[in-house]
Amino acid sequence: MQTIRFGIDLAKNVFQVHGVDAAGRVVVQRQLRRGQMLTFFARQPAALIGMEACGSAHHWGRELQSLGHEVRLMPPSYVKAYVKRNKNDARDAEACCEAVSRPTMRFVPVKTVAQQCARAIHRARDLLVRQRTQSANAMRGLLYEMGLTGNKGAAGIAALVLRIEAADPAIPAALAGCLVALARQWRARGTEIAQLDKQILAEVRQDRAASRLMAIPGVGPITAHAVVAAVGEGRQFGSARDFAAWLGLTRKNHDTGGKHRLTGKISRAGDTGVRRLLVLGASSWLRQVRAKPGSASPWLRGILARRPVKVALVAQAAKTARIIWAMLTSGQEYRAPSAA
């Protein structure tokens, strides 16, 4: 019998495959080694293949699509509901096969190689930033134990690094060795981050969509690049609110007994990196607005007048996300609201 639908449980070397025919009868249930995957599916007629959106899923999605199959990736949390008890690879593959057939299932678009590379740049940059911050905090803590302090921010740690490199007599000689190593690491991470920033800026200038997004207040090259790398044209979302909800910038919903209630906290679901960049951009924009109140829109002035600053900050980030979705899907330029 012809298999019309497959479910695949992905792994590093051994893959579990579950296939059913048009009547829902199981016709394939086997394990495949990594080298057997493409050979096996090249012999199969075009079919619908469901997989969890996990490690290497986008790679296998592209490979299977090139063989003529329709591939749909699903969030693992949505597939979990279809897993029967006594979880194993066979049950996971069966759950993928069942979940991909559901008309209400939500799917993750298969990313291109360019999108995955762009996302990797941001992951590497985030790691380097964390390492630089760890080095700075370590130097501050060690010097503080010796009664030496520095000002807050990048300028403060830069001044401490200069004192370390200049062999300040106030720093004990026994401590200087490890501090010099930390200072060297701090400078190296800063250089590497600057190189990635230049690469991101060069790619943004060549990307029309990302360049248009930079016209939005609070959106710089890093945010614009991260958004385009994450969602492309954004057409997988039905509305601007769906995009904001995917980023975790909408309030949690709790309905029961016909009563509808929105909690005061945002869900913080979805892409943490993009959400963080939007919130940081909104924070920068609000600092400018509070310094020059006349530059703010009536909506933002109203939010700042009646709500705490941090609430207004998140509200601005959510509004920015909706504007980004509208610009990506429509192809239009940014139109600033009137401050009148």
UniProtKB/TrEMBL annotation:
Residues 211-287 form the Transposase IS116/IS110/IS902 C-terminal domain. InterPro entries: Transp_IS110-like_N, Transpos_IS110, Transposase_20. GO terms for molecular function: DNA binding; transposase activity. It holds the Pfam family Transposase_20. One of its GO terms (biological process) is DNA transposition. Residues 7-145 form the Transposase IS110-like N-terminal domain. This is IS110 family transposase.
